Amino acid sequence: MKSLNLPTIILLVSAAFWFFSWKSAPAGYIVGDKAADFSLKNVDGSIVSLSDYKDAKGYLVVFTCNHCPYAQIYEQRIIDLHKKFAPLGVPVIAVNPNSPLIVPEDSYEEMQKRARLKKYPFAYLFDEEQTVMSQFGATRTPHVFLLDSNRVVWYIGAIDDNPESPSLVKNRWVEAAVNALLLGDCPSPDFTRAVGCTVKRKPR
Question: Which pTM does this prediction carry?
Answer without folding.
Answer: 0.87
